[in-house]
Design goal:
The chain is mostly helical. The chain is extended and about 35 Å long. The chain has one domain.
Length: 65
């Protein structure tokens, strides 16, 4: 990720948490709430669901148009 993350992404928030970790955690939460990833996978594993695969396929179609 060194070529992707910017200095701002590595900064600490007021909570002390590093910005990119905070954003990733909330992105995971939102995907889980929408049923795009499984909520029963073990810690550190983001298992995509059937709905997640369908969403991704639709998203990829709109990007290629």
């Amino acid at each position: 990720m060194s070529g992707v993350l910017e200095d701002r992404d590595r900064e600490r928030l007021k909570s002390g948490e590093i910005r990119w970790r905070n954003r990733a955690r909330f992105a995971r939460l939102r995907m889980k709430e929408r049923g795009l990833i499984s909520d029963i996978s073990r810690r550190g594993v983001w298992a995509i669901t059937r709905s997640g695969r369908e969403y991704l396929a639709e998203w990829e179609e709109t990007r290629s148009e």
